[in-house]
Amino acid sequence: MQINRFSRGMSDYQLKMAFIMPTMILLILMNIFPLLWSLFLSFYRYKVSIPTVPPKYIGLRNYSDLFTDPAIWGYFRTTAYFVLLAVTAQFFIGFGLALLLNREFPAKGLVTTLLLLPMMLSPVVVGLFWRFILLSDNAGLLNYLLSPILNLPILRSIFDPPIEWTTNPKIAMLAVVIVDTWMWSPFMMLIALAGLSAIPKYLYEAADVDRASAWFKFRWITLPLVSPLLLIALLFRTMDAFKMFDIVYVLTYRGGPGNATETVSMNLYKLAFENYNTGKACAMAYILLIIIVALSNIYVKYLNRVKGET
Amino acid sequence: MKRFCIMIVLALLVVMGCDNKKEEEEKAKPEDAQISPQEGTQESLRIAWAEWNPADYLEELSKDFTSDTGINVEVVQIPWESFQSEISVAFVGKSSNYDIVIGDSQWLGMNSVGGHYVDMTDWINENIDVASIYGPAMTAFAEYPKGSGKYWALPAEVDAAGYVYRKDLFEDPKEMEAFQEKYGYALAPPKTYKELRDIAEFFTRKDKDLYGIATWYSNSYDGITMGFQQVMWSFGGSYGDTETYKVDGHINSEDSVKALEYYKDLLKFAPPDAPNYYWQETSDAYKAGKVAMAMNYFAFFPGIVDPEENANYHDKSGFFVAPAGPKGHYISIGGQGMSISTYSKKQDIAKQYLKWFMQKPVQEKWAKLGGFTPVKEILESDAFKTATPYNEAFAASFPYLRDFWAVPEYAELLAECQTNWSAAVTGQKSPKEALDAIAKKHEEIFAAAKMESTEE
Fold first, then answer.
1. Does residue B146 register a pLDDT over 60?
2. CB contact under 8 A, B412 and A49
3. Which CATH number among 3.40.190.10, 3.30.70.580, 3.40.980.20, 3.40.50.1000 corresponds to the domain B160-333+407-455?
């Protein structure tokens, strides 16, 4: 038979390679090569928009320029501020929702599905409709809904409505945090819910027999058993939040007002695709990659420790 | 069998070689070769432009070219927000997707030095009556380096920043009386930036959700730069010395600081969302009756006088030239030039199209459809000035037009202006700090560019 002859002609090793090679080639072409190529370019002065000027080797100059530019540190501060606020808010809201959903009630499935909807939407779509919700004038839906409260004499004496959500540099980042939290708290909720539903019921029953308080059960049963999963969720969210780009691009018009919401990724985009400073952008991307890898390592080490304890 | 395989491979190589030869022959054809309608029946041309009304007019106009030559013309309209990046990606990928690109004047330096635009100097000098084109338009949209006589484009749509105002408010006797009483002169379209501020202040009535002015403050693309630069020039400031590329002392001069203080102050009389305003938002604010005056490119004014788009104020709108400042009168230039992509495989047809487009009867029809022609004679004719309620103000704006840097580093220079000026008007930096920061960065950018050119 044809097939037998064909398979007889191949050794086990060749067969293995035949299966692995397509994936390997794809991985090398799509991941490894761009990674190495961008590393190579990060040591060159090169603008992709001007191909007539060949890349010029400048050693670590792109890196030193970036590290000595005070504006870059400003973007890192903005990013850190965003990550801290957004991930903290998402953690508490997501975990809180998971605790509420971890019980039986009518239409639980429907409520859970509805709560998960925001994270299934495209970030650009989310950014666009929140742009209209958070318009800084009275036409903004949120300002309109809040107007009865904001127009109370006691509040009017403190500040002048409407709230300038995306145009006041002091508030704009809060607007980005609100949108990101709305979108990604369900992710935290989902992971926490998976962890909560995996906790054996008999532990709570035993605690009930011992007349343990609700706080005691939460502190000594729920939290230790769900924490490895919560840490994984935190790890994902931190890495993702650190790369925040899309919502900022759409909601606050590329990091505005000024550079009040310009995250590192936004700046990286501007360097690469608006300024066409390809070499510098590659160096910046590597700095970002190293930071994310370092952050992830801290999480993973902590996760292993927590796992060991539990 | 082996020999048979080798023969097949050789045969394939020969066929491919013939194909290449054919391609070379095609390229070797005279550049301005005319294609008869019969020959060109299967041909088509793709023009990339931003998504706006003039692109619709061009699509309409190009039907005449198709009927004359049999060559189909497709005007690909790209949304403004991604216009620049989409064209850049096509150029970087050496894509032959677009034959003609109608790009911003600032792109000239980068796309000519980068080898993306075809050098059309000789062809233009031989085929186009350059003297008939409005001089500043030719310089702004076609020439790089400025004054070199090297052409990379032909002006397609010549535009300028101008203002629309609510005639029902300006001509209301009660308003006129109150204004006269408060400011000591008659309420009329402003001629100076001082008058513009007074009028903006006068009409700002937050309790009625009415504001004096909507102008460009947006961080996106070149929004605040195009809005502010004309104020800066008119107050006596400048981007720098175009010969030496010295920036310090020019862009952060006392005059520039005063101009930025003025522009920031003007924001008090704009709607709360104004720091995000560019052409779309100022237009929307005006149509919604939120503002008494709004700045925009003239190319967007057809929507203002269109009853379908502007039901409430289409017949109550007047237009005026951007005001003068204490030290001059300058206006931001808008519009774009038509360039041929280096990667186009139909450069000869593209040139044929450009030659057809620049013919006087075609330009007359272009102006009639709503396009802003660069042809001097048409532009200065009474027929053009009276064709729309805003054409007269547009023609009057022409002597005052100026442009941003059109050097290859324009994108970096622009990004610094955008971020710092937006930071200044929203209070994150003082005007002086913002302008000093721009001066420092611009000098660094020019120094790096100079270093690159000397290293070469």
1. yes
2. no
3. 3.40.190.10
